[in-house]
Amino acid sequence: MENRNNRMIIKLAGAAGQGIKTAGLILTKALKRSGYKVFGYTEYPSLIRGGHNVFQIEVFNSDGAPLSKETDILLALDKASIALHTKELSQGGIILYDENTVTPEQTIIDELKNNEVNLVPIKLSDLASTAGGNALMKNTVALGAIWELLGLELEDLEPLIAETYNKTQEMIDLNIKCLRGGFEDVKAKGLVFKSNLNTDESVKNMMLISGNEAVALGAIAAGVRLYSSYPMTPASAILSYLAEHGPKHGMVVKQAEDEITAANMVIGAFHAGTRSMCATSGGGFDLMTEALSLSGMTETPFFCVIGQRPGPATGVPTWTAQGDLDLAIKAGHGEFPRIVLAPGNPAQAFQYTADALNLTEKYQTPVLMLLDKHLGESFYLSPQFKSESITIDRGKILTSGDNETKRYAPSEDGVSARWFPGDQISTFLANSDEHTTKGYSTEEGTEISTMMQKRLLKNNTILSNLPDPLIYGDAVDAELKLVTWGSNIEVIKAAIGELEKQGKKIALMQIIYCWPLKADPIVSFLNGNTQTAIIELNATMQLATLIKQVTGIEFNNKLNKFDGRPFYIEEIIAFLSNLVK
Amino acid sequence: MATLADFNSPLLPTWCPGCGNFAIWTCLKQALVEKGLSPMDVNLCFDIGCNGNGADKINAYAFKGLHGRTIPLASGISLGNHKLPVIGIGGDGGTFDEGMAHLIHAIRSNYKFLFILHNNCDFGLTTGQATPTTPQGQKMNSSPYGVVESRLNPGQLVLASGASFYARGFTGNIPQLKELIVKGLEHEGFAFLEVLQHCPTYNKFQDHLYLNSRVYDVKTDENHKNDRRYVYDLVDYSNEKIATGLLYQDPESTSYYSRLEKRKGMETTLKDEVKVYDIAEQVKEFI
Questions:
Q1: What is the per-residue pLDDT across A127-156, written as a single tens digit (0 to 9) for each?
Q2: Which of B98, B260, B270, B281 to mutate to test the interface with A (most CBs of A within 10 A)?
Q3: Using a CB-CB distance cutoff of 8 angstroms, which residues of chain A are in contact with residue B104?
Q4: Which residues of B touch A219 (CB under 8 A)?
Q5: C-alpha dihedral sign at B218, B224, B228, B234
Q6: Where are the domains of chain B?
Q7: Chain B residue whose CA is closest to A394
């Protein structure tokens, strides 16, 4: 159905603690520097030692970022890795395993033989110790082996080894020796894995970056001065990246005692006149919901990134889902405007972090940005981020006034001008009680409804100023109109690319601003007799329900799942192929 | 120079006659005037409860947050502009029930702001329920057979948590309370000021006369020691006399902000620094 010459999949597997992720990142980046389009995906359990870890590298020619079920080259650092992935191996695929520590079961050997998969034993541990290294360094030996298997030049890989293990010159030398050991061993065996993948000069200068790192860079570039968060998978990497790099730009990074603190500190910092943000996952966000309501009531900006993972409760901490759209849209008591947006790749995550900060300051109401584990923790190619692409718009800020100047003065768009404590303008009370234009508490009926209307007026202002959803492809002569959101976008783009080669025409809409949801662009996109479909990673079709609520439109076809795994390209292609015959 | 009148709100207090809040309200204004601060030079942070009902009874920049969350809100404000004097105000209910974790971590962090605890040993605004500082066995609304839990001691809690400043005032001693607020504002770190006050409506066990007959100022005690363990024992509930004044201050105290390595030598506040930052150095690491 699909021409697999366009894609090669390498999977590194082993026990937690064997350095799978480090090795995977080195290999992915080295391939990128050699000009190959790549995508890196991790699977790991919520354990520090002993669980099964996987780093999957997709090397491809298409657009987007495919994720495959099938594997061409498997590196198995432990015995479990062979058994767990046997069925994923493609015909002609190769399993490299550590002959010193792993003895495959006869039944598995037979099964692999039937599927024409080659089992290649390598003495990874022996080669590591011959090079003078320890048991952990067998992953470096394996990198050398894979590199030779792919027929690539060592000088393209060695600099990355040196950059990664850069603590001491001795460490660098040892790892390089290990690398060469693996490389020479495979060379002597005469093994080659053939692929028809192209290289592209422009890829060499692209970034290899995760969604979390992109958010962190967006935060630095867009002038976040206080980042306050409590660690929670899959958003913790934003905290750790900023803790290291934020202070180089003078950013204050606070690991708070809980999410309640994180959220209240962000609101306090915005009130003081600076820019701030936090990030968490669904469970941590639950704790922030009263603060969300406080932001809505006091019209103090608040920005939080929610890295989604499967729930409810603790759920499945290190896997992925898109189950918190309803939560983001509805969280918090009382009625107040908010903006919920969802980027689909790191370039968007970078740009929309900056945009979200502008929006929360412009409209003085909470902004929530949904990521998920797949986007947050996978490694994507991306054009280099530029600070020049960032603009700062802090909305209406007064620099002068007198004591008749009222912080919550009515205005045509619902947004009152603000200023900050210490400014010699006019005192005000940011009040969680319903309040007057000065901020004083009120229980008077007319004032209560006037202030509610004033705040909710911002919803209309926001709605008329938000950008439209993104459309990929031509909706006019499409055979299928497809809608999705979040991290699904990149694998869907890759799938559509494959189907286009067969002459199929599919138009794709990515909803970025999920709330408030603009009805008109969706209605005009879906208008007509063409088949429609929606793809999302949750059990209850939250975006489809929302679109129906706002537009009245129901999709003809839906694809969803909720097993903690992101969509695989095979699943998307199978679904779409059924709809465009 | 600002005067007391500058801090007047057009709204009058709604507290019960005889409430200790009147004294705290007055002392706060006096202390701000004494420090030469005008209403636009400070930010007050209020909790929910009878203390919070004072949020619009004083003219100043202020934020009335959520119940128990005054401390993280004030922490964010004081980090956002470390040159801005910030005062957090909360009751014994919000501070020791919902806000307990925030208090202990603010002590550890040693953010530079003054926190004034209104300790009247009950929930006033919700009509007289017990708080963690209500004596065990005391009959209260929602504790009709007496409070089951043991009584929490604010001084011992904060001292054991490593507080760098612990003072205790009494609403019957205005000059002392004003002085303690001034001292708290000058402290280089998190200043915890407990104010013993009467709740004339719901606190029948510890009224003004009860407190007045037991308090003394440690200034008058030549044996007083600025020592964490000494003060821990001194404020034990078993002592008949109630020590007030600046009971303990760590002279070596350094605030959270001043401990931040990468902020050292920077003159500006976070408020002044919102602009586009160049990430070219970071981007290189991803190539």
A1: 999 999 898 899 999 999 999 999 999 999
A2: B270
A3: 257
A4: none
A5: negative
A6: 15-284
A7: B274
